Amino acid sequence: MKTLRFILTTALILCTSTLASAVTFSIYEGIVYDNGAASWFADPLATPPTNYDFTTPQSWTATFNTPGTYAYGIFVDTEISETDNTFFNEQGLVGSTAPDSRLSWQIDDPWYGTIYGNFFNNALTNSNDVASAPNDVSMALIWNFTLADGEAVKLDFFLSSIVPTSGFYLADADPLSNESLYFSTALTPMGNETTPVPEPSTLVLLGSALAGLGLYARKRRVN
Predict the structure, then answer these.
(1) Sorting pLDDT into bands at 50, 70 and 90, what band is 192?
(2) Mean pLDDT of 143-167
(3) Which long-range contacts (CB under 8 A, 24 or more apart) does 110-114 make?
(4) Distance (Å, whole) CA 80 – CA 83
(5) Averaged over 31-37, what is the pLDDT?
(6) Beta-sheet pairing, 127-128 with 103-108
(7) How many domains, in total, are found in the chain?
(8) Domain range spanning residue 32?
(9) In 148-215, which ranges are E strands?
(10) 133 is a domain residue
(11) Pairing mode, if any, of strands 127-128 and 37-42?
């Protein structure tokens, strides 16, 4: 009986240890910034709260195809194993690839830093203000771009525990679990959607063809 009790107790300890050490990823708060307007896709203050845990990579896509000046971005307050380590177990990291000149970014504490106000004012500082742990990390990316007539672009945002193989990215890293969440984005041109304007030589040929048709029509009437 003692042997069985020891085995059961050991199994329970191992099981509890495994459950406690399992890494969880969460979006505590997520906001879309669209030309000065904000909308929440993860809101801890909603009734009921819409913040959530996730296991698969998260992605968001937006397309733009009308002329104008745009500012569009996403803010995420992410957590890694919050239940085990509380909010303050993280540090911010920045990838080594330089960002696109149209992209602004910031990593900061969502409560005590400036990122929250800067995000709503499209004034991100391009700085990592929580480079050391322990801290609470939030990340923001905003694109600022202009489209001419006929131009179109697609914006993609990605949040994943797998480090991007290329491009600029931000990261929320947890030294305790040795896990990280990587936040990246891409702007992809979608081509020119305007009706092609004929070149001068094409116009000359077209004019000659129309003149020929007109002459042919007049000859038919005479005959």
Answers:
(1) low
(2) 96
(3) 110/29, 110/77, 110/136, 110/138, 111/136, 113/138
(4) 9
(5) 97
(6) parallel
(7) 1
(8) 20-189
(9) 153-160, 169-174, 179-189
(10) yes
(11) unpaired
